[in-house]
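FYI - complex with adenosine-5'-diphosphate, inputs then prediction.
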Amino acid sequence: MNWRRTLIFFTFWSVLAAAIQYKFQTATGWILLSIGSGVWMTWRSRQSARVARWSLNPQTDPPTDIGPWEDVVASLYRYTRSQSDALNDMEENNTAIMSAAQALPLGAVTLNKDFQIRWFNAAAEKQLHLQIDQDIGRNLLNLLRSPEFVSYARQTDWSEPVILKTSQSGQTQSIMMQLVPYSRDLLLLLMRDLTQIEKLETTRRDFVANVSHEMRTPLTVLAGFLETLLDAPPGAISDTQRQTYLTMMHEQAQRMQALVTDLLTLSDLETSPSAERVAINMAALIGAARQQIEALSGGRHVFAWHIDSELNLLGHEAEISSAFSNLLTNAVRYTPDGGRITVTWQREPNGRARYSVTDTGIGIASEHVPRLSERFYRVDRGRSRELGGTGLGLAITKHVAMRHDAQLDVKSKLGQGSTFSLLFDAPRVACIA
Ligand code: ADP
């Protein structure tokens, strides 16, 4: 106990001073007492100064040798440490919550009751094109300038969201927004970008409409011929006519069959993102495709084959065969008689492998090229149908390419011909030693 030590020290010092005073009857005792008191006061004020210095930054270790201050400082230090630990915990929690809010895939904006922006996360920044240094404190209603949102914001019931169409640099976005009151007088605006979902929905609707349309035409023709054959009185249709009708019906049935086969192939390809890695004997695969395509051409085209028979692929044989054949079939389909078709299967200097089919056919105008691999996209619908095309060949080829880490590349000039290439990444390429 410091106060006890101080008391003992003082009692001892005073008794000593009084004894000296009593013994020698001079001022020595009083002088000694004054010096002792002076030393003691200096010592104490130095301790106080140390404590005062520490109190400016009480999180640091407390000073030692501070006499009677030790107990006070120790409990003050303990208190400060516990407060500082609690503050650190709160800061950590706060950071974790803010990071989670930032990482939300939903856009979130906090607003005061006058719709002034207080905070927003990264998704909101992207969806509403907000800027942190400019838009904090701005009124959201002025920023959005959407009458629909203004009237939604003015109503009191926000239990249902509102969908806004916004346009930024020519791109239309569809954003679902909902206001949620929280705390006292504060609002949370939650946003979800529906653009991609709506696009997918449109694609799905178009796809169903396209399939129905593609099926309806051959079905109408088939039904028409069947009705004619069934309704015609005996002997009204000659054998030659009957034969013609049956041939045409057969053609339409084949068309439907080709369509269904391509649709099933597409749906199979969509089930998994990557194809297996089995070594394919490419010389054999291309050899088989060559036989088929030359038979299809029936001598109407001149073929040139530049095949590296030692270059193999790791992939799914049936898929690769279907992609390679699609490109060959198209070359034959869209190259008039007498045209030249060049097929190449070679290794590139960078270790990739290239399969390309070049024809001297009708070619494709540049505006169509980016859309060729869309389902049912055809440059000339009538011509494609006439030639037995389903409009799905390049969509299938593109899918096969993606599943084999390859790119489909198209180069074409209207009236001069086209080159369709599949470029396989090096890890998919295998050479026979
Ligand atoms: P299709 O069954 O109609 O051939 P694809 O998906 O294979 O369907 O091809 C889409 C369209 O691309 C074709 O309708 C055709 O207009 C065009 N096309 C494909 N290959 C060629 C080619 N070699 N030359 C010219 N046009 C082509």
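The chain has a mean pLDDT of 91. The radius of gyration is 44 Å.
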